[in-house]
Design a protein that fits this description.
By secondary structure, the chain is an alpha/beta fold. The chain is built from 2 helices and 5 strands, in the order E-H-E-H-E-E-E. The chain has a single domain, classed as Rossmann fold, CATH 3.40.50.150. It has helices at 27-36, 55-65; strands at 16-21, 45-51, 71-74, 95-98, 101-104. The strands form 2 sheets. Strands 1-2-3 form a 3-stranded parallel β-sheet, with helices on one face. Strands 4-5 form a two-stranded antiparallel sheet. The longest helix is centred in the middle third of the chain and has 11 residues, at 55-65.
């Protein structure tokens, strides 16, 4: 079951602009594309604005979606106020699945 794009709860419109606040490695963008390409839906995504403050994840996101003109990647986070924060890259296990290999960093 997809936690973000549940039929009857989320209604995507043709030409949708989607904000991904914490884009990680693009997994939600993948699900968005899959949801829009369902036979019944056939919706188009006009733009995805992907926020990702983590260095590694932002680089991986650019490798994956950097050439997709619909996806704008911002190396930034979202919050209540504008401020600098320190991210702890050791706090999260980074896993990336690419071309049949799982890469941990």
């Amino acid at each position: 079951m997809d936690q973000y794009f549940v039929d009857g709860i989320i209604s995507l419109k043709d030409g949708e602009v989607f904000i991904d606040g914490g884009a990680y490695n693009g997994d939600t963008i993948d699900k968005l594309n899959k949801c829009c390409n369902k036979k019944k839906a056939k919706k188009t995504i006009k733009k995805v604005i992907a926020f990702e403050p983590g260095d590694l994840n932002e680089r991986l996101l650019r490798k994956r979606y950097g050439n997709d003109e619909r996806v704008k990647i911002l190396k930034a986070g979202l919050g209540k106020k504008a401020e600098k924060v320190i991210l702890n890259p050791q706090a999260v296990l980074h896993m990336w699945y690419m071309k049949g290999k799982i890469i941990f960093q």
